[in-house]
Every structure is written in structure tokens, then in C-alpha cells.
Amino acid sequence: MMKEQVLYDKKFDVHYLNKYGSLMTLGNGYLGVRGALEEDYSEQNRGLYVAGIYNKANENETSELVNLPDLTGIKMEIDGELFSLMDGEILSYERRLHLAMGEIQREILWRSNSGARFKFLFQRFTAKHDLHLLATKLTVTSLDRSATLKIVTGIDAQQTNFGTQHLSVENVRVFNEEVMQGVYKTTESGHTIALTTACKCSLTSDVSFAAKNRRLLTTIKVDLSENIPFTLEKFGNVYTSLDQGQAGKDPATAGLKALKAHAPYGYDALLEKSALEWEKTWQQKRVKVTSKNEFDQLALDYAVFQIEGMTPAHDERFSVGAKGLTGEGYKGHVFWDAEMFILPFHLFTEPETAKKLLRYRYLNLQQAIAKAERNGYEGALFPWESALSGKEETPEFAAINIRTGTRQKVASAEAEHHIVADIAFSLVQYYENTLDEEFMKKEGLALLKETGRFWISRATEENGQLSIKNVIGPDEYTEHIDNNAYTNYMAYYNVKTALYFMEKYDDTDELLKMRGQDFLSRLYLPKPNANKIIPQDDTFLSKPEIDLSRYKVNQGSQGILLDYSRDEVNEMQILKQADVVMLLYLFPELFPSGVVSENLYYYEAHTIHDSSLSKAIHSIVAARCGEHDAAYRFFQEACLIDLGPNPYSSDEGLHAASLGAIWLVTVFGFANISIKNSRLTLNPTLPYNWSELAFPLHWQGATLNIKVTKEHIILTKVSGPEVMIEISGFEYVLSDRMEIAPLIRSKP
Amino acid sequence: MMKEQVLYDKKFDVHYLNKYGSLMTLGNGYLGVRGALEEDYSEQNRGLYVAGIYNKANENETSELVNLPDLTGIKMEIDGELFSLMDGEILSYERRLHLAMGEIQREILWRSNSGARFKFLFQRFTAKHDLHLLATKLTVTSLDRSATLKIVTGIDAQQTNFGTQHLSVENVRVFNEEVMQGVYKTTESGHTIALTTACKCSLTSDVSFAAKNRRLLTTIKVDLSENIPFTLEKFGNVYTSLDQGQAGKDPATAGLKALKAHAPYGYDALLEKSALEWEKTWQQKRVKVTSKNEFDQLALDYAVFQIEGMTPAHDERFSVGAKGLTGEGYKGHVFWDAEMFILPFHLFTEPETAKKLLRYRYLNLQQAIAKAERNGYEGALFPWESALSGKEETPEFAAINIRTGTRQKVASAEAEHHIVADIAFSLVQYYENTLDEEFMKKEGLALLKETGRFWISRATEENGQLSIKNVIGPDEYTEHIDNNAYTNYMAYYNVKTALYFMEKYDDTDELLKMRGQDFLSRLYLPKPNANKIIPQDDTFLSKPEIDLSRYKVNQGSQGILLDYSRDEVNEMQILKQADVVMLLYLFPELFPSGVVSENLYYYEAHTIHDSSLSKAIHSIVAARCGEHDAAYRFFQEACLIDLGPNPYSSDEGLHAASLGAIWLVTVFGFANISIKNSRLTLNPTLPYNWSELAFPLHWQGATLNIKVTKEHIILTKVSGPEVMIEISGFEYVLSDRMEIAPLIRSKP
């Protein structure tokens, strides 16, 4: 069945080159390869990224995920005529990302300017069974006559991050007139990267090699006979000095060895191995919906496919960047998106990966403590943006204002502190699911204590009450405000759970416990006002409102900033994204349902949704409020953030958090799971378009399959211990399989 | 008449993009702009270079002429369709480099995929009256209907030197919603470069600005009415911290000020000012031939045009690189080409420029003395390759051998020492022409003494005779040989002229004089053998010979190195270029004419002409030997080195020395001027195809016009003092105008 899930690109259009370049990214968490077409187009950006390989161009810049030398480019000439879809005539064109097996296929029927027709099939995958491997297969058939085909391909180190070069060339080699290898080094971080590749041709060819201007290329000349397909298979791999074990010590040797081992299998056999791994993944993690709108399933599969492709599940030293390994947006940095939008997917499908993402924070705890100290606080202040080192990587200044010549300080590193509590929230979520005492006792407790300690030191006293002043909440259109509801509640939860686990594990830091108790008893927590509205911060509700409809039409474009300065936006009731709504999503039982609805309506009306994190969260809260239509509409709109028609919105990479959020909507929204005191509850409310929703779920050591139909909830325990589940207010113990009816789709 | 001299590019062909990119370079000695088409093609390399702006990418690299941010790129969309000659249909296409006024025009009639026809006229020039200025004009006419045109252009700092980025972005600004400015800094050499530009539109347009990913761009949207042309004029300028005076102190302010001053004139008026300067140049410097083959005149005009464009006549701190300012080949480094192939053109047309090129060496004398010392010699050892600092810039190692992984040491910096004597030769040539005592007393004498001193220390004694061992002559296919004829004779001349000027200017360094006399009396100077052949070095004539015909067919490609290793080539009688022939060119009276002919025949038979410096020198010597056909054939082949049909031979820039050599052939070959004891002699031998050869000549303060026809020599003194000229053995004093006949075309 999975074989049918395909993302299509049905028309060659230069305007969409980089959108599909992002959408057709293939990755395995170790590396990501943008879906650039094999042949070059001036507008097209190629990209090969390896998790953790960052570099600073100079001391004024922050670390950037390095665009590595390219292995995907193939230049072809047929009887001297350059193959380009801008030239000649495209008789048919189709590119398909086959999600089931993780392969891209592109089929083209093309008439050259000379009038002869040629058929091309391009295939490509990055292996899931061997994270270093990528392979390409090209099949060319001359349909009308014999012809001479010239192919030029190899390793192209002219790639840059939009003009910034991060690599010096250490070595380029050709071994045995067959294997090409380039070894590169990042200029500042000093990582060594070895790229190794070789080509295999189906027909006798004239092959030569040359290195020039940072390119190591092979030229292959072959005579095509009419209707006899020619195939070229290209195997490549990437090893770096960041790799674990022997490979990390000598990436070049590892690359040569791996290439020798792989090449004899051939493209098809290697693809099969990789596809087998994908099959396991789909079995383990796929969310299935039966919807009147088939696109829903595709969007869900696509989200899972790309989250898998960008998560470095192999190595706890890295986490998931805001664009994963799909592009250079946000310089490959890791934000709160990793914990709040990506981690839950892993936690509920493969908890080991979630643990690694949390270990990433633990490994960087000292950097966070150092940042807190530099900023005059205690405990751990995690960086708003981080890369490999765990240091703060947020640029100190935003891009220059080209009209004034000034650069505004980026406030996020200084004030967007909620990330500290977000990490704490994820830790507790991890524990509640896994009951992993060992982790919690060591990493969890250390992180909770230091994040809790941060908040205690962060609060300031006024008239006996504690405030958290001068922060930025998730809504970045409102900067430097006091008592942000999201931040204060999250900080409260952070300290409360820190104290809980200190108690549980007999921690003896009595002073911290005492200070924590005091913090909890005196921290100001904004309450709903007379209109049931929870004030986003101390001043938000008193600010003027404007009609946002014209900006909502072009949401995602930040068009408001063309009409108003950032300072002006800050002084109005304008939201970039869910903020109080985010809080309501995380703590569904904090307020009565009436309050939740009122706040959803109120804040949504003031939200432009210029952030890709906004829609899905609104969908979840709407679903829980029984607003089926709105929930489903928000879900569909969230699915279009990358897959929608805007040709340029994903040029610099996919919206990782948004992909994670699509999964969140199905599980936390429509299936409406929530966790309270280590207990799983389920209150499904399917959209009208959906007749069935099914997904696997890891919960406290058990693997469950959960299926929700219009009439029933069917729970199956595949493995693991008995688990207790609360459904619509009733408690069930699941030991094998059970069917519950007819509780769902009741309005709250 | 000059208006008719046009270099045409009559067909859009992606294979020729970079050849024409080099050929259509516009320059003024301060800056050079490659003739890249305005719209992008993936195969196309843009280039903007400023004389003296070099940078080292890292400590292992040598300095490289920096590819600066681009001002020429223009992206156009018509009704959303990207304008590209790869797409749609080209109904007519013609690009013309108008040599007379230094302007490129490109006219295109294009049918978009939508079926509508559009006419484009692109114009571009770099100003000769203001070295910082470049301007573009674009005229678009929609022929069949109204249409929406979107233009994106500005300053693009994503340019690299084949993937190497030399610039950090310091600032990007938009002033008054009109003027864009980018300020950049070279990462190692620390030069500041300011690019300033603005656009002017003929119709009301919707204009916006944005900066992102190293690009500062304006987007202009305009509604085209049927048959009403729309014009966009774009004015740009470049100022750098290397500039003299106030501009060098604040290039950004200088750029803004200049743009304000220039823009109001408009493209046409500015072009006219520039063209006026070109007119003066052509009057001053043009060589005119009346040939049955019109291409001869075009090649000569083209050579003068490009030499003018690449010579930094404004600033003695720079010289002419092997590719001038036309591309990145040889990293923009300065070789002996500057003195031996470029300088004579200037010396005989505008001696002040020749003086500046010699001052470049003088300014770097201390670096040359330091290099000699490091290498264990006395005096001055000028670097084989140099850039701004005058330090040795020859890469220590050649490109890696991709099969062995080893890098061969580049021997030129260690052993290609003839450049020292080449500089000395040029000094004397300069003096003989200008009689510039002031220069000669100071710079000339200092240079001659230190270069002479170098040779004295460079020689080694064997049996009472002095040898110069382990050198490389101009022929780089023969490395590490002893007593290279070219080198020894040139060294002898160097020391001899040093002593002459020491004597003349009462220099008191008696020790140097004594050592010099001893050097002259004992230096081994290879004499013709029994077959009249001057041995190129001690062992050359005893080496085996092979049939070179198949390599001569593909001369210029270094194809021999595909069949033989460098070491193997070294052990055979195989020449890359003229070597003994070069010696015979420089010293026409050193040997009897019979010896000259024999050596020309012998060495030419062993020369592949893989160097672009070879053909023209053979032409000169053949002309002097009365070998009219061979001389003319060599001349024509030399003219094709850049202008010939090979699509890729000039990709990385024009062959500057070859362009200079084309001029040399006409003046030193066909007009056959030579200088002996400060006296000019003239022995013309026109090719059969030519009925007339005329050129201006500066000689000892006088400006002469020399016209050679089949029957007469007509000499006109335009200005300056009386001069003595020897023609075919008779002496004449030229005070006004004289006609001499019928001496020419006599075989020697």
C-alpha cells in the first residue's frame, strides 16, 4: 500500500525549482541531499548537508550548516547539444518522490533541437540502511537514431552557502581509474569531510578524469544505439571526522572501503536494502487516515518521511535544525522547535530517539550554565539557537536595515527564554512516557534543577509577588514584555517538576527546594479576565487593535512589516503565531473548556499566522474544543505550508516544526491524547472528512496500535506490559485488544 | 572608419558562453568586466575585477585576483516567464563589441513560450574617461501585445572565484529609495571595495529593494504597451581603499558622490564621453593594415583594445596579469609577459605607461632582493609570479596529480630566473626609446645593478668558465637544464648594460664593476654548432626526437602530457614554445642571418607551440628571415589564439601576452624595427596579402607616423625633435616627412 504514496512534480517550471529542491530532499538523519535536478539551472541551489558539520565563515558570523561538495550534478551533451529542460522540447515530464522506499524517480521524454527524441530516467536515494551512502541511476534511451552521449559528473566543491565558502580542499584523488575522492576541511571548525564516488556504465565507454577549480570530474563518452538503453550508476558516500569510531579517525579510508563494499551490489540491490529499512519505519510509525481528501494521507506520510530524514537518530551530539537537513534557512540552527514540535513524534514512536535529542541538551548543559552566568542569572539558560557546540548561535544583530544602515539587535538570544522551560517540559513528557528512571535520575534531574534554578533567578519581586519581566514569548511580534502567560506558566511547571523529581530522587539541595517553593507560591500567573481572556502579557490587552484581514490573506509572508515597523507592530494586538493558544495546547486541563474556547477565538482573531508553527497548534486546540471544521481547516492549511502552491516559501528548506506539528494534530488533536500524572488519556474527535484514523503509539514500554473510526476506538497492544488508558473519562486496562464504543465525536 | 570595427557574436551557443565572456570583456585598466550575458546561465561565469585587488583564501594559497560582486546581471520575467535564450525561440541574435567606442550591444528578437515577440537591446560599457564607471542600458519592446515586465538587478556578492569566496560583506544600503551600495572587504588583504549603483526607468514602474544572502537587489515591475520601448539605464561604479587620494580613504562616499554626478547625464551622454577617449587612443595607437584578409585589421584592433583595457596605466603599483582583467586564469598574476610582450606596445605608443610598468618592478625591488637572499643569491631575484605585494606568488606546488596523490613542486619560482634579465632588457629598451636619464639614473640603475648582481652570484665556475646551471628557459617543457642559451645571453646583456650605465652615471661600486667584468669575460655563451644550431642548453641537442605532428595539430592543448610524463618530455627534444627563437627575436644581429634561419627551422620543427607566446615570436623571426608565407601564417595563427574557433581555450581569460605579441609582429616583424645603440632601424617586409601597414610610433620624444606600402616607406614626424632612422642600411634624419623607395621587400 505504501508503494502508492508519491509526491509528484508534474511540470518542469523554473519558478518551482527550489521549492521542489526542498520538497524532494532525501535524508537519513546523517545526511540530507536537496532535490536539485541533476542538470544545472542558474536559479537552482544544490545542497548536501551532514548533521553536525557547521562552520563559521568569520568571527562576526555564527556557525552555519555547511553546504558540502555536490555529488548529484550530471551534465549531459547529446551529439554536442547540452541537455537542459530550458532547451529542446519536453514531450513528457514527471518526477516522483516514492515515500515508501525513499527514492526519487524522474522520467522525461525530450526532443532535442536536432529533432531526435530521448528518454531519460533519473533515480536517486540516500540509504536508510547505511547512513553514509547515496546512489544515482541514470537511464538514457535514444529513440530515433544512434547518438553520442557525453556525461560529466563527479565531486563539485564550487558549492557555497549562498556565496560563502566554508571548505578548503585538502585532497582530490582518482583511484584505479575508477574511484574519485575529494577530502575537504571546514575552515574554522576543522572538520574533515571525505566524499567518495564511482560510476558504473552498462556500455563500453570512453572514460577520463580531471580536477580543476575545486571540481573533480569524470567525463564519460558513449555511443548510443537506437532504442538500446544506456545506464549509468553512480555510488557515493560521505564520511567525516565527526563520525563515531574508526571512520571518524580516517574518513577518507572509510569512504574508500565503503565504496568498494557497496558498488558491486548495484543500484537496485542497494535500493532494496534501503527500502527494507523504510518498510520497518512505516510499520513502526505511520499514521493512517481514511479521508475523503487523499491529500491528508500524503501530507501525513510526507511529514513522517521528512522528520525521519532530518533527525540525527544515530548521534546524540546533534539535534534537528529549523530546516532539518533540507536547506540553509536559519543556518541549520536548532531552536525550541526540536523539543516542542519534533521530539513528541519520536517519543511516541521510538523513544530512544527522543532520549538522544534530550541528551543533546544535557551534553550542552555547561554551555547553558555559562550563558546564564554571562547574563547575570543562575542555572542553565539554553541558547535560543544552537549548533554543534551548544553555544548561543543567534546572530547578535539582525540583517541590516538597508534604508537606515543600522542593524537591530536580535532580542531572541537575550529574552526568548521560554526555551529553557520547553526543554524541561519535554524531559517530563519523556519520563511520563518511558518511566526511564535511570535517565531521569541523572540527566533529567540535572537539567530540571538547572533550568528550575534559572527561573528562580530570572524572576523579580514587586509587592511580594514575582514577575518575569522583559521576555519574548513564542509570539515574536510582541517583544520585551512582562509576565508573558506562556513563559510564566511554563516556568512554573519547570520549577514544580524540578521540585517533584528532587523529592522523588532524594536530592539534598534544600536551599534550592526552599527557593523553589517560594517561587511557586509567589510567581504571578495571569488569570482569565472578566471576558475569560488570559492576558498574553501585562500590557497586550490594552494595546490598540487593527484589521488584520489583508495580512491574513498573505499569511507567512510577514507583509505587516512592510507597512509597520517592528516597534509599531509591538505596540498593537498583532500576533505572529499561537502564544496563549500554545499554552492551552500544552496544558489542556489548566482552564475550563469555556475559557479555552474564548481564548482560541480571541487570539486567533489577532493572529496573522506568519509563523509556520501557528496553524497546527490552533488546529489541536480547536479540535479539543469540538470545533471540527476549524480544526480540520487549520490542519489542511498547516499541510500546505510546504506542500502548498506558493513557489518560493520553502526555497531555503522545509519547515521542520510544521511537519512535526502535522503529526501532532492527528495524535494530540484529532485522537486527542494527553498525559496527566503519567497516565494516557484519549478523547478522539475525528474531522468529518475522516472515517478512520490509525497510528502506532509507544507508551510506557508497550507498543500500541490505536484505531479510531466514527463508531469505535480499537486499541491493540502489540508488545510490552499492560497499560492503563483513560478514554472519555473511563479507565481501561489494555492487555491485548479492545474495542470501545460509542464515545467519540461527542462535543465537549 | 573605426566605427566599423566590430567583433561579432552571431549565435547564442552555450558552449561559447565563456569564450565570449572573455572576448567581450570591457576594461579600462582600473577595472575589467567579463562579457557575461545579463541573464544567468548555469555554465556562465561572471567576473568583475579591479587591478591590484588580490586576496589569499587561506595561508596555503597564493594571492588571487578577486572576483568582485556583480553589477551586470539582470533577471527578467515577462508575464511571469523567465527570459532565457535557452527557452522560447530566438528569432534573431547578434552581439557586437564596437571597438571604436568600447561598447557592447546585443540585439535579440525573441518569442516567448506564450507566443508573443519581444525585442531586446542590451548595451554596456566601462568608461575610459572615468575609470570607476560602468553603465548598462536595456531596451525592451513588446511587439505583439501589452505585457508585464519584471526586472531584478542590483549587486550580487554571491560571486566567487570558482567557489572560493574572498569577500566579507561589510554593509549594504539603499539611499533615497534609489541608490544601492554594497561595501565589501577582502578577508586577508583587507581592501575595502564599494560598489554603488542605481537604475533609471523610462516608464513609471513599481520599484522595491531587498537584501538577502549576499545580494542587494531592486525589483522593478512595469507594464509594457505594445510597440512602446521601455528603457532601463543602470549606472554603477567601483571604488576601493587602494584608490589614490580621498577616494581610497572613503570608497563608499566616493561611490555615492560619483553616482550622483554621473547619473543625470544618462547612458548615451556618458558613452559619448568615454568614446571620445577611445577616439584619442585609436588616433594615438592604432596599427592600420590594408590586407586582402579583413580579419587581420580586426585582430590588430582587438589586440590594442584589450591591451588598453587590461593595463593599469593609472597606477604604477600594479602591472598586467597573464589574463589581464579578463578572467581568473593564473590567478591574475604578473609574469615576464608584462615586460616582454605587453610593455613594448606601450613604450612605442605611450612611454609613460611603460615607465609605470617598470616602476612596478622598482617598487618591489626590496622583495626581489629578499627573495634572492632566501635562495642564497645576491642582488634581486624577481618573483616568477607576482601580485600587489611583489612577493613570490607562484604556488609552491602544482595542482595535485589525481592519480598519485602527490603534488609536484612548481619549479618556475625556483629556476625560471630569466625574468630577472627580461626586466633588465625592458629597462634598457625603455631608455633607448625615451632617453629618460632621470628614471635611468635612479630606478634604472638600481634595478640594473641588483639584477646584474644576481646573475654574478647565480653563475658557477667550472674549469675557469662560468655556467648558469639548473634553470628553466622560456620553454617550460625543458626543466632544470644548464646553460640555457636564452638565459645565458640575457644574463650577459643584463650585466653588460648594468656596467654600461654604472659607468655612464659614475657609479662608484668598483667591486661590482670588477665582478661584472669578470662575469662577462668568463660566462659561457653557447655558439652555433657545425650545423649552425645554437644549443638550447648543454644537453638538449643530444636528446632523442619524436614525431610531433599529431601534437602540433592540437597545439595549445598540452596533449603531449597525456601521452608522456613531464619527466619524459623533459628528456626529449620537445619544446612548448620559442626559446632560442625568442633570443634571436630580441637580438637580431647577434648571429649571421644564415644562422638565424637554420635555428628557426630547426627549433620550429621541435616546437609544439603549446604556449600562446610562441607563434608570434616565430612570425617575427620568420619575417626577418624573409620567410613571408611562414611569417604571415604564424601571424594569422597567433591572431586565432583567442579569436579562433576553439570554444573553450579562452574560458579563464584572454592571453594577454599573445595580444601584445600580435602588435609586436606588425612593428618588430613586418615593419621590422629594431634598436641598436639607441638608434631606430627599419627594414619592412610586408606579407603578400598586405598592401599597406601604417602605425604611429613614439621614438625619443618624437611622435612619428610610419606607413609602409609595397613601394614606399613614408615617415611623418607629427611632433617632437628631429630623429635619426636607419632604413635598409642607410641613415636618414627625419625632420618633417619623407618618402623612401624602393627598398622594401628585398630578401636578406
From TrEMBL, chains A, B:
SUPFAM superfamilies (UniProt xref): Galactose mutarotase-like (SSF74650), Six-hairpin glycosidases (SSF48208)
One Pfam family in the UniProt entry: Glyco_hydro_65N
Every Glycoside hydrolase family 65 central catalytic domain range: 302-663
Keyword annotations: Glycosyltransferase, Hydrolase, Transferase
Single GO term (MF): hydrolase activity
Domain Glycoside hydrolase family 65 C-terminal: 675-734
Domain Glycoside hydrolase family 65 N-terminal: 10-241
Family: Belongs to the glycosyl hydrolase 65 family.
Protein name as catalogued: Glycoside hydrolase family 65 protein
Annotated source species: Fictibacillus terranigra
